[in-house]
Each structure stands twice: as C-alpha cells, then as structure tokens.
C-alpha cells in the first residue's frame, strides 16, 4: 500500500491557491466540477478522447483543464500521476473512478492526493468486512447465510464484484439456489468458484440517503464520536426489477434484474429522518474505530424500511454516489444546513476550502 507519507509529501508541495478539483469525467463529475466552481476552485477532468467534446459542452460544469487517456489504466502511469501533482490536483474518487482504476490499484499504486480515507476502499469493497462494520455499528441488518444449505427464507444472492446488481437472483431454499446457480453457470455467466453472498431478502421500501461527514466539525448528533454529520439528500434507485409489473400477467424473466438504471428523488416521512441520522452516526462512529480516521466526506447507506422491523441497512457506499446527481442545486434537506444551493459536489469543495483556510488540508487526505 502507498504510504501516507508519500502522499503527504506531494501535498506539502501543493500551491494552496492553485488547487484543482479533479476526477474522471463520468458518474457524478458534472456535479463535482459544477460545485467546485461555485466554491471558486479550478477543475481538472480526466477523459477518454471520445467523451471529451461531450464534457466540454456543459458551460457551467465543464472542467477547466482536460487530460486525455487512451485507457483509464494509464492514470496509474508515473508520467500521468506526476502531471496531476504538477497541477495541484486533488482527486475526488467517485464510483466510476474506483471501478475504472481499481480499488487495489489505487491502494497500491496511486500516490496523487485524494479526498477521503483510502482505507474505506478495503472496507467498502468487501461485503464480509462491511458486515463486520455494521455489527460494530449495531445497526439492523438482513440475516446472512454463510452457506447455501442454510437458506430457509426468501433470499437475495449477490455475485461478488457484480456491477450494479446485474446477475443477482432470488432463492428461497438450497434447492432453488443450486438450480439457479447451475443455470447461470451453464450460460457461462459465472464460474464454478464464483464468490456469492447470500442474505435474507428484506421486503419493504428502499431508501438511499446521502450523508456528508466533516472531520473538521464537532459531533452534532447522539451516537457520533467524531466530526459533524449532514443529511444532504435521499434517492431511490431505479432498477430494472422495479418495472416488473409491466410484463404482467406473466413475470418476464428479463425484469428479474437489479441493474441500476437511474435514480428518483425521495423524501422520507419526517419522523424517520431521526432513524436515518441515527444509523448514519453509528456507521460513521464505527468506521473510526475500525479504520481510523474512518469515513471522511460523502457516503450513502442503502436501507429498506420493513413495516415491523424499521430500517435495515444492507449496504454502505463510502464515497459520493450517483444518486446525488439529482440535486445539483440542493435537495429537500440541504436548505436546513445551508442558505445557498448545496449539492454534494459543492459540499466536498466547501470542505476543501474550509480546510485550506484553517490549514487542515492534511486532515482530509489519507
Ligand atoms: P450495490 O449495487 O450498491 O452494491 P447491492 O448490490 O447490495 O447494492 O444491491 C443491489 C440492489 O439489490 C439494491 O439496490 C436492492 O434493490 C436490492 N437488494 C440488495 N440487498 C437486498 C436485501 N437484503 N433485500 C431486498 N433487496 C435487496
């Protein structure tokens, strides 16, 4: 793993008046660039040549500087990393950045200063570690099955490394699991050793609240051991299975797919805001115990409201999520923290600005 000292030595040479907020042109980058501009930062986009004109076509969000790569893997080359450092770039790692560059590559080869705690990549990317994290936090979770033979109720089977829920399936018994697993295997969709995670399918309503934790602030909620925490928006993912009713009266197999295709804005019944913030505070506090300094900046909890059990957490995304793209000018919650339009992208830039002013930039980069 790249040592923190190596990253800090690059950061120490940065000209703080010329910092550029940088990321790959994808995922939530328009919002990140737009928000950074509003906070007075210059921006730098990394793009494949094909995407360049599209990203240049947005007058209020296009990056000030664009660097092209033929393949995203080229970002790891020494030349490219040095170039980013010369530009005083601070990378904002969104979902596609992590996906395209690779979590392991980032940990082992990427030494450009990056907003947030790199250790979250280890904890977020491994579902077993996530479970340990949830247990430490004491939040309600689905029942987990360590082996297909244990399946005794409707369950969801998640293929390890599956992208955006594609290829997940449901099974209510070991037999159903075996049959569906074999089917996928015979179609060549998974191999024999495919790593799967099996958990109870929780019936209920899904919520994907977006939080921001600032290590520069003081605890503002019960159960929060460090930083201040904000709820900056909520979305619900639009997954293929959500439209399964369109094939009725037949259930068409193509609809049984959890691939994310977009996001819808959501507000939660107001009394439940308390439950969302409570779970987020517990998750943030546990993160500091497990991988100091814990979560920094944006994260999202994926939750299901079960009519009897309340909110169950089935996943955490420890970075900016694409659902925040719904709110480039603020969400139904952001006005309760800020009197100006505050997107998640802008909130990240605001944090950088505050840290620069207070001489604490190093606290945001690990
Ligand atoms: P991600 O794509 O962020 O890794 P998951 O892979 O955990 O999220 O889940 C993908 C989708 O599968 C969720 O958005 C949700 O619709 C559904 N899902 C996941 N876990 C459960 C569960 N335990 N019960 C019901 N639905 C679930």
How would you describe this structure to a colleague?
By secondary structure, this protein is α+β, with helices and mostly antiparallel strands. The protein has three domains: 4-114, Rossmann fold (3-Layer(aba) Sandwich), CATH 3.40.50.20; 124-140 and 204-363, 2-Layer Sandwich (D-amino Acid Aminotransferase, Chain A, domain 1), CATH 3.30.470.20; 144-200, Dna Ligase, domain 1 (2-Layer Sandwich). It has eleven helices and 13 strands. The chain has helices spanning 4-12, 29-38, 52-56, 78-86, 95-101, 103-109, 119-124, 127-137, 174-186, 273-290, 344-357; strands at residues 20-24, 42-47, 65-68, 89-91, 144-145, 155-159, 169-171, 196-200, 205-214, 228-239, 260-265, 297-306, 310-317. The strands form three sheets. A five-stranded antiparallel β-sheet has the order 11-10-9-12-13. Helix 3 (52-56) links the parallel strand 2 (42-47) and strand 3. Helix 2 packs across helix 11 (344-357). The chain starts with a helix and ends in a 9-residue tail after the last helix. The model has no long low-confidence stretch (mean pLDDT 95). The site of adenosine-5'-diphosphate has 19 residues, from strand 6, strand 8, strand 10, strand 12 and strand 13.
């Amino acid at each position: 793993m790249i040592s923190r000292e190596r990253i800090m030595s690059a950061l120490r040479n940065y000209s703080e008046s010329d910092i550029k907020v940088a990321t790959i042109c994808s995922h939530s980058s328009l919002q990140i660039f737009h928000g950074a501009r509003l906070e007075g930062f210059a921006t730098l986009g990394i793009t494949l040549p094909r995407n360049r004109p599209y990203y240049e076509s947005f007058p209020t969000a296009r990056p000030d500087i664009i660097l092209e790569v033929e393949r995203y893997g080229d970002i790891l080359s020494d030349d490219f990393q040095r170039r980013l450092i010369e530009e005083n770039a601070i990378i904002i790692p969104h979902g596609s950045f992590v996906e395209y560059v690779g979590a392991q590559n980032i940990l082992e080869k990427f030494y450009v200063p990056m907003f947030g705690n790199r250790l979250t990549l280890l904890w977020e990317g491994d579902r077993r570690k996530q479970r340990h994290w949830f247990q430490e936090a004491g939040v309600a979770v689905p029942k987990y099955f360590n082996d297909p033979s244990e399946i005794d109720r409707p369950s969801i089977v998640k293929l390890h490394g599956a992208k955006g829920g594609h290829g997940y399936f449901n099974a209510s018994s070991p037999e159903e699991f075996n049959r569906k697993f074999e089917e996928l295997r015979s179609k060549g969709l998974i191999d024999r050793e495919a790593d799967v995670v099996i958990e109870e399918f929780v019936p209920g309503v899904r919520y994907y609240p977006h939080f921001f934790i600032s290590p520069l602030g003081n605890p503002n909620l019960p159960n929060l051991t460090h930083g201040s925490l904000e709820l900056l928006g909520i979305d619900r993912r639009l997954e293929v299975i959500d439209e399964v009713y369109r094939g009725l009266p037949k259930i068409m197999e193509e609809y049984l797919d959890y691939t994310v295709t977009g996001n819808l804005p959501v507000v939660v019944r107001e009394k439940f805001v308390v439950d969302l913030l409570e779970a987020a505070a517990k998750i943030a506090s546990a993160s500091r115990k497990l991988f100091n300094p814990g979560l920094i900046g944006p994260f999202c909890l994926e939750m299901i409201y079960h009519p009897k059990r309340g909110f169950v957490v089935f996943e955490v995304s420890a970075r900016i999520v694409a659902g925040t793209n719904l709110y480039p000018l603020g969400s139904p919650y952001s006005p309760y923290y800020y009197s100006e339009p505050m997107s998640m992208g802008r909130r990240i830039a605001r944090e950088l600005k505050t840290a620069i002013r207070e001489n604490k930039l190093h606290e945001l980069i690990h």
